User: Fold these one by one.
Assistant:
Number 1:
Amino acid sequence: MEESIEGARLHTAEHVFARALQEQGLNIHVRKADTYRPDNIGKAYVKEIIPFEKIMEAEKAVNAKILENLTITEENFENLEEAMKKNPKLRFNEDRLDKEQQVRVVTIGQYDFSACKHRHVEKTGEITMFAVKRISYLGGETEIEFLAGNDALLFILQIKNEVIKVAMDRHFIPEKLSEYIKNENERIAETEKEEKEMLYRLLENDSGLILLKGVKISKFYGELNYFVKAHPEKCTGITNGQQITVIKGKTCSTNLLEIGEKIKALGFDGSVNESSINGKVNERIIKEIEGLWKT
């Protein structure tokens, strides 16, 4: 399959990006660069965790090299040793390169020298723009998605417009977005703490089945577990009308298997065992479940 010009932009940008990371003192090893994709999204998989700040610094460096419009050349060498004699700063992937075979070196100005067989643009200016789209850390690696050309421009414009819209809705200036998010996260954390304390007080007063509307049940698992450990004679549960979670203390006499069979007959879709009930529930049967619990 013929390699596309969009892929050539992405792959050339990936070379500059990798060098920009190394220029910050990182001894990175790009395990794989996936740039010739139908969705025109480049991916680089790096064998270490790269801090966010260094990735952003490298993004700036790539766009600076794009503005310099550096010339890109290719040269073939008989083997890796010959290539490294002429290019001491040569980058190459040892896992995928046969040191005895012919090596093609792609040179970007005097900035980067890399062994590569893929198509590249002739000057860095043809990349137009480079933008990091997503970063994820998994299994000790960093996966970075990036864009080039018009895709990068449109992405930057989209993000800018979304930030401005949020700023207008929330009545703050875009430059203070990070400060606003920090304050909002602190407010949410404080609210969640108050909610959990309130639930615990409810459990102490009434350890039956408690209906909490409009909440995510999973964030209260800790409080339920803590409550039955502190009160092993109790059996308690919460529901939001769409999901139900019931936990039983070690010395509690309530028969959850019996209750579970009854609510399954009503249409409950979830798991039931001797110590817990958990799963989806239809809001129309909540009243019936509450009635079963009370009896």
Number 2:
Amino acid sequence: MNSKEILEQKGYCVVEIREKDIINRLISTKYTFVALILEGAVEFEINMETMKATAGSRVTFPHVSMLKTISMTDDFHAIILVVDDKFAFESTVGIESGMIQSLFNTPVEKVSNQQEWDMLINLVDGLKKFQHFAAPSHSVEISGALFRNLILIMCEFQESTVTGKRYGTTYSVSDTYFRSFVNMLNDHVKTEHEVAFYASELKITSKYLGEICKRKSGRKAKEIISAVLVAQLKREIALSGKSLKIIAFEFGFADQSSLGKFFRKMTGISPRSFKSQGMGQEKTIAQ
């Protein structure tokens, strides 16, 4: 299986790049990239801005970026994690959008802390191993957790380096509401699929909850609910052994057909097809 096939099936892929692999041309990407420069140096242009990265640096940039390699040393060697929007979003729900944005505000960062560097290498190596797992089981959940930890570690170390303190040691009222909303999803999303329920529990309006979610995550409240719901459905369909009719009932759908329509909209395939081919083989569709 090549890198493109892995990316389409898993939502991410890890590749190692050396100088001979690079083609010097302009590329428009639709993915998020995290690169760890192991050896050598590279000069590149991203969104019309020229940057340089040397060994021991991490490079992060978001989707829809214009990227062009200008030059690199003969000994250049990097390990690159490529992630699609769907995988990134499902893996980072609940993390401060400001924390994540801070990574992209400084795309190239020299990692001076050896502990951070070792953790990043280990996490990316773990993702690389999981992308080749033939058996689905919990591999999607584990790889999502690894990516989430990767993002958190970069955010935490970057913020402590820049400001001398951890990100978010004080929280606004909207931060509290957002965290409460995300925590509530784990307990209630199985049967409660509407924004109004969570807004009512938080004693705020649906409009205000929507504004908070958009500001904190870049997504609408309904999109977050649907993402968490489909993640739980995937586990139930792949692992529980229950019939789709029973799962539809337990998850608050009117019938099996309603479950099928929702699941196909979110994943691009039917629940039955997903069940037959396993969690690790779902088709990834563009958001």
Number 3:
Amino acid sequence: MALELRQQLKLTQQLVMTPQLQQAIKLLQLCRTELEIVVRQELEENPILEEGVDTLEEEEQDAEKETEEGEAASEEVQELKENPEEFNDVDWQTYLEGNHLSGTSSEMYEGDDDRPSYENLLTKKGSLGDHLLWQLNLSRIADDERLAAAEIIGNIDENGYLQASVEEVVSGSGLAMPVVERALSLVQDFDPPGVASHTLQECLLTQVQQLGMEGSLVERILQHHMAELETRKYPAIAKALEESLDDVLCAARIISGLDPRPGRAYSQEDIHYITPDIFVYKIGEEYVVVLNDEGLPNLRINSFYRNALSGSANVDKKASEYIQEKLRGAMWLIKSIHQRQRTIYRVTKSIVKFQKEFFEKGIEHLKPLVLRDVAEDIEMHESTVSRVTTNKYVQTPRGLFELKYFFNSGINTTVGASIASESVKSKIKVIVASENIKKPFSDQKIVDMLRQQGIDIARRTVTKYREMLGIRSSTERKRFF
């Protein structure tokens, strides 16, 4: 069989995504914070773009500001002419103390309404390591022990546990074993109690010892029956230690009050605030959808470059080509942002139409909804709706929700209708919250209770929803006190 090369002509059609289309799709799936970053970056890189309101509005604002400042200055001059003695009566020392050139001071503001928000002040939260080093600096110990203690503190994680063994600390610091052991004993006496422990058992035992409960039933349970304590087998613990069940329950109550993660009070986790992309207001009997444009720069084309392209300025060919290229990019960016906002508006309006009963009556009336329903309603593709609802949040009279929250699968009911999965999860939470802590409901019991409410659901589905809600099993939820 011979092999040969041949040339063939074939006419095909294929969809090619232009850079402009890729940019539009990218902007569509960005969250609000990411969109602001992209817009700010484009403002820095594209000289055609600029931020601001219309020129006429700017001129009117500047004229009003100059008029107000001129009237205020005239009034002050007139007062000084009429009462010249008041100029000499001014307490300049108090004036200078209350008007600092830089920084902030409590004396700069007359009332609480004039003070800046605490969220706008730069602060640094102290970490667990800073807290331990502060205590170390107050300790009177030898230099080698101080060095070993600093090495130990550097190996403590955010929960307060020591992640290195004594041998590893000795190897890393080059100090003798007795020095490191004394330093470890010193750090373990620091606040918070239980810090620098290797295991949970050691952490809890350290806290018990600092409470002065050596030799107590609490210490014996922690030393010999940690496994039974974790599974709440209190009768077995009472039998093994030859103690009454009531005494074991009292000891377990004390243990439950100890802190298994002593370093969490010094966690460095930052609070992330969510800014909604869109608002839903109830006005009368209707729900109104309003876009949140606050914080987004108002983009426009720079008038200088617009005049340069119109022929009013002498521009060479290369500069003209550069300006036209940047102009196309700027116009496409502005168009893509407007298209993004319109799409979010249409999707949210469609969701409000489908889930009106949820806004009126609550989560129990949330309907099953899929992307195809909204896509067909607004005549868009499902992938577009999926991108729009990702990482987008809406502020409603019922609270703040991600747009994807309103899309749920359906669970059949005994009457032939369907109910949203989120509504079923809400019912499971209500059932668990109302149970007896000494006899919690099993998953099968929850299934039976839901069927009494007309919801036909399998036990494995209840188990899946319970785990998604972060609810533990009935054995782990059981409490003796």
Number 4:
Amino acid sequence: MIIHHLEETNSILNKFIAEIRDISIQKDAMRFRRNIERIGEILGYELSKNLNYSSEKTTTPLGVKESFQLLNKIVLGSILRAGLPLHQGLLNYFDDAENAFISAYRNHPNNDTEFEIVVEYFAAPSIDNKTLILADPMLATGQSLVSVFEAIKKYGSPKELHIACVIASAEGIEFIKNHFPENTHLWIAAIDNELNEKGYIVPGLGDAGDLAFGAKL
């Protein structure tokens, strides 16, 4: 797996990451969503540097100029519901992309710390021979991403695979390395070292879905 850790280079991204972590700023759900969206835009911009382009002529009111246009046929796939603001940020830049949405959640059958990932809903175009970008804001244990990837395989084999995340745990990254193709690109804004006993990232930011859309039952 090819890892692109954006926080290693200081940029305006650091401000957005700090704000989504800040418990006082988190109270503003609209700002939280917008910051996730802006992080998605930055991830999309950086990711775009690794895609394929062709030379085309663009006609202006005063002449003709050579430009380079994106060749990749992109499918944006996001895990509901927390992935929606991140998806929108990516879609702001890849506005011609097709879209896929996946429902995946942790099921605690014994009401303890043990859980399984349940994938119940998946709506997607064919991904065969296309560039698939999987968007999930929090890469904690990595089990959700692996379960989603297994479910997606029935829709074809992507030509290129990219994963876009806001915050990941070091443990989660190590886990998905063993379940995704070696040439998979992981685009990550920030990496935290710890998971707690419930499988949540520490220091992380809490539950991204609840912060964006309100607490669930």
